[in-house]
Design goal:
By secondary structure, this protein is mostly helical. Helix content is 54%, strand content 3%. It contains six helices and two strands. It has a two-stranded antiparallel sheet. Helix 2 (33-46) crosses helix 5 and helix 4 (75-86) crosses helix 5 (97-122). The protein is globular. This is DNA phosphorothioation-associated protein 4.
Length: 157
């Protein structure tokens, strides 16, 4: 189970998380590690990809304090994923460490799944911002095509 009070990053994804931030002179599309993790968790949830962490990164990025997510307004994503995954309102309990640990664990695994998707999508890319923008644009276009009632382009060859 997750260490209460912190969100951990898998060691094999640590370099990707660092590369996706704009800290220390890097040119990544996200300002903080927490931003990267929240984006990755949302992506993992969208694709129903939940991956156990395995070995944990102890250096950069070290486990991120939950207060940091809360001050940025990202804590609701952790809670939303917890309740969606368990279908149990008790997971939102603030008084029991067991529920907080379970919420964090679910969030970490979705983030790890999203980072795995990003790792594959960004392989060989020089400009991560541009590649992520293309990826998101494709996702939106694909979704719009799926939502159409009757698509004649299916009959074109």
């Amino acid at each position: 189970m997750a260490e209460t009070g912190r969100i951990r990053v898998a060691k094999d994804k640590a370099d990707l998380v660092k590369a996706l931030t704009s800290a220390d002179g890097a040119t990544g599309p996200f300002q903080t590690y927490a931003d990267v993790i929240v984006f990755a968790a949302a992506l993992g949830a969208k694709h129903k990809k939940r991956v156990p962490l395995g070995e944990i990164s102890k250096r950069e990025p070290s486990p991120i304090r939950l207060e940091y997510f809360a001050t940025m307004g990202h804590d609701w994503v952790i809670k939303l994923l917890g309740i969606t995954e368990t279908q149990d309102i008790k997971i939102l309990s603030l008084n029991e460490e067991e529920y907080e640990a379970k919420r964090n664990h679910i969030f970490e695994e979705y983030a790890n799944g999203g980072l795995e998707l990003l790792q594959n999508e960004l392989r060989g890319s020089v400009d991560y911002s541009e590649r992520i923008l293309l990826f998101l644009s494709y996702e939106r276009t694909y979704k719009e095509q799926q939502d159409e009632e009757f698509d004649l382009s299916k009959f074109l060859s």
